[in-house]
Amino acid sequence: MSQKKIKILIVEDESIVGADLKDTLLKLDYTVIDVVRTGEDAITKAFNTKPDLILMDIMLDGNISGIDAAQKIKEKIDVPIIYLTAYADEGTIQNAKLTDPFAYILKPFEERTLFFSIENAIYKHEANLKLKKSEERYRTLVELSPISICIAIEGKIVYANQALLKLLGIKDLNGLIEKPIEHLVVSEFQNFLSEKLRSVEDHGEAIRAVEIKVPSANGVQIEAEISAIQTEYEGKSAVQIVFRDISEEKRKEKIQQTTIKILQSINFSKSLSQEYEYLYKTLIDFIPIKNVAFTTIDEKTKKIVFQFYMDQFNAFDFAHKLDEILIEQTIRSARKQILDISEISEIVKLHADLSKIKIPLRWIGVPLPINDNSTLVLIIKEYDESKMLVQNDLEMLNAIIVPLCRAIERKMIEQDLKVSLEKLAELNQTKDNFFSLISHDLRSPFDSIIGFTEVLKNDLESLSQEEIKLYLDSLYQTSRHIYTLINNLLQYSKFQLGNSEFSPKGLKLREIVEKNVEILKGISIKKEISIRFHEVADLCIKADEDMVNSIVLNLLTNAIKFTPRKGEILVSAGKMNGFVQVHIKDSGVGMDQAKIAKIFKLDAKKSTPGTENESGTGLGLLLVKQFIERHSGTIEVESKPNMGTTFSFTIPCCP
User: Fold this and answer.
1) What are the distances in angstroms from CA 549 to CA 21, 490, 513, 576, 610?
2) I need a surface site. Which of 81, 215, 402, 569 has the fewest CB within 10 A?
3) Is residue 73's pLDDT more than 50?
């Protein structure tokens, strides 16, 4: 039952039926305004009392039927009407439909049917009223809306609101009136729009949220969404078109999608180089650019490293110097640099080696702090005037700078972690191999010493002088091997613990070589190996004396070990880019590439014996490499089986 009492007017020409109907309504807690018998009385009473609902008999006394009375009432009053009738023929029903009744009740009717019909009619009527009010509010909002709206008749514009004029950059409505509707969109959408709007006007097929592009006064294409419906304008069939500027939405959507792509790239790019390549592809999809470079600058050394370089007009070897000059300028300013062709040309004039490069119309450098140790500079070069970045492009670029930095930073951290884990695994393996080799190579010589001394202790009196000399010589060689092993072990341990002193000073290379040749003279004479010098006399190196002695001693020892009797070792040297490059070449057994690849690593297996079964651990060559790298030098190996080996290393020369 409704909370508010509903006022009902009964129109019924049969007195008994009318009275019975009134009693029923009162019983159902409705208010009965009156019971009238004619259509004329019904019209008068309805106009005067404004009922909430009318129960109308179709067949009435008098000149006006219930259907006619209902028609006249609804012309003035919006009131729900329920027809009461004993006739259900098709003709009567069709005539009644013209008055838009809310229900039909056939006589005789039940109280339950009457109640539900009234309640349903009241509910539907109130819903309709709310809908009408909503539509009125909507029409007002549309008129005041900032959304662009126009109306076209037969394909020509007859109305446009101020929002549309503002969108197009047109000040006067007369600039649009009577112009073809397709002029509101860019050329690629004109045929499409014309056909769609013709379908709307001819067949009433609405257009809903179709994306197009609209030209503006400043030449920039505006992304918009249009909807269109059939309507009437000044009594004529027309099409109403709504334009919604979605440029900002598209911009934000593009930024969001690109940001997601950038951050997701961390998960599937396997290396930092792949990450830079993926970021380049993402950038060229994001804004209209082609010529891009990523460079990193070490904050301590200020060293510039080009991580990725794309220039369609200049080769890297040819043009990167200009980029380096501009990068340094960007780093000094600590802010984004946008240099035009005149500014770039002034810089090129100062450098003769840049005279042949194609100068970009504009050079953009964006410094991006990655961490405390390094800065990334994003470089964009523009050569085509028709494809220059506009302000909106630069703003979009700024919007993805932070995720770009984070992606590179995380990939750098990931790569550093991977390298650290690999180094840790290598160190653990080296440690295991180290202890395995040391335990083997220390135990074996001591077994030999114990065996020889036991023979000398127990059988000295029965041994000849020649046998005693042989045993003592073996003891000497074994003891010397242990001494070398322990010395290398101590040096290696000190270096690994960071306790090794490093005091470079000026040294004569020839004196260093001669000193170590003298130390090894006994071994080389025994194997009848000659050691010659070539162009070593006047070279001065700046090195730590203990370390460089260890380098030369270990390399000469290794050469003697793997050179057969009566072989030859050649030591030569020369200056190269601020370094002295030393070559120690032997005529020994040589080695294949597989052995070269492992020569500076400790192998868990026993090291390769020399030509006369000399033993070793491989620790000496590991020390050589570490000591050379401590001097910022390098070491290389050239060798082939049975064709000898050449070790070449660099050490800083004296200033």
Assistant:
1) 126, 15, 8, 21, 22
2) 402
3) yes
Q: In angstroms, rounded to a whole number, what is the distance separating the alpha carbons of residues 192 and 125? A: 42
Q: For the CA atoms of 387, 389, 392, 393, what is the dihedral angle to 10 degrees?
A: 100
Token match 């006249």: residue? 72
Query: What H or E segment, with its residue span, contains residue 199?
Result: helix 187-203
Q: Which two tokens stand for residue 367?
A: 């410094």
**CA–CA gap between residue 614 and residue 607 (Å, rounded):** 10
Tokens 């419906």, located at residue:
229
The CA distance from 339 to 361, in Å, is 8
What's the pLDDT tens digit per position in 227-270? 999 988 777 888 999 998 888 888 899 889 988 888 888 777 77
| Token reading at 51 | 């009922």
∠ Cα 586 645 631 (to 5°) = 95
State the DSSP code for 400.
Answer: T
Distance between CA atoms of residues 199 and 210, nearest Å: 15
Residue type, 246: I
- How far apart CA 559 and CA 557 sit, in angstroms, is 5
Look at the chain and count its residues. Answer: 655
Residue 1: per-residue pLDDT: 40
Work out the burial of residue 196: count CB atoms within 10 Å of its CB; fewer than 13 is exposed, 13-18 middle, 19 or more buried: buried
- Nearby residues of 451 by Cβ (< 8 Å), 6 or more positions away: none
Domains of the chain: 7-141 (3.40.50.2300), 145-245 (3.30.450.20), 501-652 (3.30.565.10)
Say if CB 253 and CB 261 are below 8 A apart.
no
pLDDT at 465 over 90: no
Entry pTM: 0.51
Say yes or no to pLDDT of 159 above 50.
yes
Instruction: Give 126-160 as a DSSP string.
Output: HHHHHHHHHHHHHHHHHHH-SSEEEEEETTEEEEE
Helix axes 247-268, 401-459, angle to 10 degrees: 10
83 CB-side CA count, 13 A: 28
CA 39 to chain centre: 78
Higher pLDDT, 449 or 493: 449
Which residue type occupies 93?
Answer: I
Question: Taking a C-beta distance cutoff of 8 angstroms, is the pair 70, 101 a contact?
Answer: yes
Measured CA to CA, the distance from residue 649 to residue 640 in angstroms comes to 18
- Alpha-carbon torsion 193, 198, 199, 200, what sign? positive
Q: Which bin fits 120, alpha (ψ -120 to 50), beta or left (φ > 0)?
A: alpha
Show the 3-state SS of 153-181: ECCEEEEECHHHHHHHCCCCHHHCCCCEH
Which tokens sit at 496?
Answer: 């690994």
CA distances from 492 to 485, 516, 619 (A): 10, 19, 8
Cβ 411 vs Cβ 266: under 8 Å? yes
* pLDDT tens column, 467-522: 888 878 878 777 776 777 677 677 666 766 666 678 899 999 999 998 888 878 87
Q: Is the peptide bond before 108 cis (omega within 30 degrees of 0)?
A: yes
- At 78, list the tokens: 């919006």
CA distances from 567 to 442, 532, 564, 570, 587 (A): 29, 11, 6, 10, 6
